[in-house]
Each structure stands twice: as C-alpha cells, then as structure tokens.
Amino acid sequence: MLKLLVNRAARVSTSRNHNGFAAFSFSRCVHSLQFATVEAEEVSGSKPAEVLNLVQGKWVGSSKWNTIVDPLNGDAFINVAEVDETGIQPFVQSLSSCPKHGVHNPFKAPERYLMYGDISTKAAHMLSLPKVSDFFTRLIQRVSPKSYQQAFGEVYVTQKFLENFCGDQVRFLARSFAVPGNHLGQQSHGFRWPYGPVAIITPFNFPLEIPVLQLMGALYMGNKPVLKVDSKVSIVMEQMLRLLHSCGLPVEDVDFINSDGKTMNKLLLEGNPRMTLFTGSSRVAEKLAVDLKGRVKLEDAGFDWKILGPDVHQEDYIAWVCDQDAYACSGQKCSAQSLLFMHENWSKTSLLSKLKDLAERRKLTDLTIGPVLTVTTDSMLEHVNKLLEIPGSKLLFGGQPLEDHSIPSIYGAIKPTAVYVPLEEIMKDKNFELVTKEIFGPFQVITDYKNSELSVVLDALERMHNHLTAAVVSNDPLFLQEVIGKSVNGTTYAGLRARTTGAPQNHWFGPAGDARGAGIGTPEAIKLVWSCHREVIYDYGPVPKNWEIPPST
C-alpha cells in the first residue's frame, strides 16, 4: 500500500492557476463515482487535489490556497482553498440568516424531520456499496495514514450511524412529553428545541466519522451548522458533503469552511453561533469556552487509563487488546490507552513480552504504524527521555525513530513505545504532570500495583484532568464495583474484554465530569449536544364560573 502511494506521488506543478473559477468547474466531476471530484489513489504530487468551501449553497474557492504535504513522502498533494479573516462575511451572513428557533422544530416545517430520515436512508445505502466505502477508506488513508481495516472501520461506523436514523428515527429525536396541569385546560409540554445557528470544529484523526456524526446530529435537530475540519484532512468531508447533496441534502443547509484557527475564531465571534461543538485539544477548548462565554460542548483531550484487575485470564487476548488500544492508528485516537495499571498478578505473566512482540510486528508498509500528524519525532523522544530520568523507570520497548521512510520532518515517526514508571514515582507531585501528559502518538506508560495499592491507583485517577475513556479489565464484580464507583470517565468499558478504543455507533462516546462535555453517536448524545429544552404550558381554561377578581397579593 505504501509503495503504491509513494510511487504515484510526485512534485506538484507550479504552472496551475488556482485563482480562476474554471479550476473547480463541473468538469471536475469526471470520476467513476458521480458525486466525487477526486480519485482517492490518484491524489499525489503529480496530480494534486483541490478542496473548496461551501457557503450559502455554493461551492467557492479562495484567493489563498494552503498546500498540504503528503504525510508519507512530503510532496505537495492537496491544495485547500482557505478563507482568511477578510473572507468570512459570507459565512457570518449565512449564520445570521438562521433564526434562533432553527430551520425546523416541532412547530415549524416538521416535514424536514422526515426529509432527514430519507437522506440518512440514501446516504447509508451509498456507504454500504463496496465501491463507495472503498473510496472513502482509501481517501482517509491518504490524509490520515492508518491501516485499511482501521480506516474502513471509520466508514463502517458512519454507515451504521446513518442506518440508525432512517425513516421515522429523526423525528423520534424530537419526541415531546406532557404533564397534567393544576386545573382543567392546563397542560405543560416539554420539547427538544434547536439552537439555530451553530458551529462544528473537528480534528484530523477521524476525518469522516466525527464530522459526519456531529453534523447530522445538528441537522436532525433543526440547526444551521457551519463545519470546519482540520485542513490536513478536510478533503474527506468535502467529498462526503457532495455525497450527501446527491442524497437530497439541501445545499444551503450546511456551510463548510477551510481556514486557520485564528480566522475560525473571528468567524465564531462575529457570527455568534448559539452553540459550538469542539473536538480537539484541551488548550483550544478552554480558549473557546472563554471566548464564546460558555456556549460550547467539548470533547477534548483524552489521557485514558486501563486497569488490569487481580484475575488473570486470556493472556493472549488481553495483550492483543492492549496493543490495539495503544498503537492502532499510531496512537492517534482520543481514546488511546495512555496509562496501563497492571495488578501484580499480571506482572508475573508474560503479558509485557507478548505486548512487545505485538508492537514490533507493526510496520509502515501496511500502515499499522505510520506518521504522527501533530507531534514531531524529536518531541516524542524528548518526552521518553524525561520519563527515563525518573528513578526506577525503564524503556520496555520502542523509543526509536522509524527507519527507512520518507515521512516529512514536520510529522512524527517513532516505533511503538512503552515506558515503565513505578507507581510510587508517578504519584509524586514533581512527576505526576509529566507522566500524565498526553502524547498523541504510539506511546504509553505502564506501571504495576499490589492489592494493597488499589487506593493509590484510584487516587491517581482522581487527580487526572481528562475523563474520556477507560477500561477495567476484570470479571471480579467486587473489583469492578470498587473501581467504577470511584472513577469518572464518561465511556468506561468493564469486564474481561474491556478496551479503551473502538467506540461504535451503538453507545455513548464522550467525557464525564464536565458540564461542557459532549457526546456523539446516540440519540441521547444528539439531544444533549444539539438541542435544548423548551417548555410550553397550555392554559385554555375555562375560567371558573362565578370567578371574581381576588384581593391584591
């Protein structure tokens, strides 16, 4: 796969004119999939792709083009039409055109709930077609390199999510309830109400799944969203929007912007969306929370832990799950296993040697290990070296750069790595922040604990800042009860087959312990993030017979 991608990549021609509308005319739609404007495996330095913006129902370019380099070889292979601060007004106007009561709600244009059920049906069918799913799988691989199975899993979850909201399921999201009143003619009704103009900002690591699930949730509830996806991977969502348009999505229902963070921040301040969903780093999340006066839902960084309980079972299986959780997608999942607590009973097994063997079979040629898009090689290895200065710590495996590759230096490329740090050292104030720093790459910290030290482990969980996913690997019900009852993480897997990653569309995925926390994928998540509660109290009368004006109160 890698050789195929690299052989097809060459330097971008400088002779093309990116300023004319002709560069993105209808002649772009000449590919085997009617909605597509690119061939996934042809995107390369010799045949660069273009990514446009969508605003007020029209695909538009920009005077500024951001060149994205191929994460496998450094060639310029995608040109993104990025909007700068002078070009945000059409997006501001589009947001402002949507009233606070939304595009539809239970009292306004209810037929749109049915329309979105139909769109979901058609889009789910499209993604179920092998030719279409393969297109998106390979396009994901080109911009966020991961194994074919990992990329396909993202397409599969997206397709199943859309299946879940076919037919009447969209209007069921807006189901209301009624409570009898105090007298004849009075009833209170609770409704799920849209926010109206909203914004969605999503990261690079899941170019299809995260933006589609959040976008459709926003649309289902009657909102008008502007969507920004990390420019490194936004080509995937541009193509998905074209698919959705072919399935009946009105072109004016969604705006799609490519920009840098500063420009997007200005758009949010001027466009004043009623709610913004942000998935990404904690630093940006906290800035947005302040700038937008709390009108945010966040799924930020995840420093995710796994605890292996005292009961030892299925050693090979547990080792395999630990390898998948820590190193699949090169560790670039917000749910990736960051810290593994092993009970002393597990320390006596061959688990670590098996984990080492599994990690070392990962290779660049099939993208089971690959480029790290937000952390450089030097930064990751510097973190490893700092941890190795802690007394009692040791390198279990990895800790070296990948070899024989052409990954550009702006990205990271290291072997799957694990560092052991003693529990008592982790808990020291001078070490705790360092050990629990999230490294968004193929890296984890491993420690062990004794029966008498479970309370110390639980103290460590309490001190952590991020509470996204977790795993408690044990079939001991009393152990599970103790750990689950004294922890917080919003998506916690428990039992022998517990994992931290691989969230499908059939359960909630999101953090807990933060009033701003966002969920994704389920009816509960959609209603929480993309609607608010509105109460309408009907009071028809009649006024009681012989009623008289009472004394003042």
UniProtKB/TrEMBL annotation:
InterPro entries: Ald_DH/histidinol_DH, Ald_DH_C, Ald_DH_CS_CYS, Ald_DH_N, Aldehyde_DH_dom, ALDH7A1-like
SUPFAM superfamilies: ALDH-like (SSF53720)
Gene Ontology cellular-component annotations: mitochondrion
Keyword check for Disulfide bond: no
Keywords: NAD, Oxidoreductase
One GO-annotated biological process of the protein: reactive oxygen species metabolic process
Highest rank taxon of the organism: Eukaryota
Start and end residues of each Aldehyde dehydrogenase domain: 121-494
Example GO molecular function: L-glutamate gamma-semialdehyde dehydrogenase activity
Entry's family note: Belongs to the aldehyde dehydrogenase family.
UniProt protein name: Delta-1-pyrroline-5-carboxylate dehydrogenase
Species the sequence originates in: Phaseolus angularis
